[in-house]
Specification:
Layout lengths: L8 H10 L5 H19 L8 H12 L3 E8 L2 E8 L2 H17 L6 H13 L4 H15 L9
Antiparallel strand pairs: 1-2
Helix pairs in contact: 1-4, 2-3, 2-5, 3-4, 3-5, 4-5, 4-6
Length: about 150
């Protein structure tokens, strides 16, 4: 189901991951407030900014395209790089963004989420670093790619 405000199913997936204990209305309010806070922070110069577009850009910056998977071959375990399916790409991006959002030091979840989204949209932040580390690991283990599943 698409969300009520933006009519986007990706927003619903994100909010469902954000939600704790079935409190969906609270999760929606956190997300919408964070989008409003992003628009407020980024439109200081006078030009209007679409918070949803910033969030989508941030999510695209966090989604990995390759990952490493463990594969046992002849008693040894190799980290084999493999492509990430599109659905898994989205779920990993959401998972990492929320994980590092919760680890931030701001006071409220809305502020934490807004800050992480802004950082990720600029290509900074812990979630983008996680993606870069994953890509770097896959690049380092490229020699074992012939062990693919």
């Amino acid at each position: 189901m698409p969300d009520p405000k933006f009519n986007d199913t990706l927003v619903t997936k994100f909010v469902n991951s954000l939600m704790y204990d079935g409190k969906k209305s609270i999760a929606y309010s956190i997300f919408y407030d964070a989008i409003a806070l992003i628009e407020q922070r980024l439109s200081k110069g006078g030009d209007a900014v679409n918070g949803l577009e910033v969030w989508k850009k941030a999510l695209n910056n966090v989604m990995p395209s390759v990952e490493v998977r463990s594969r046992r071959v002849g008693g040894a375990t190799f980290q084999v790089p493999s492509e990430v399916r599109p659905e898994r790409k989205v779920s990993l991006g959401i998972k990492w963004m929320l994980l590092y959002t919760r680890k931030r030091s701001e006071k409220t979840m809305t502020e934490k989420l807004a800050s992480e989204i802004i950082a990720a949209s600029k290509g900074e932040g812990a979630a983008v670093k996680k993606k870069d580390d994953t890509h770097r690991m896959a690049e380092a283990n490229k020699a074992f790619s012939h062990f693919k599943f």
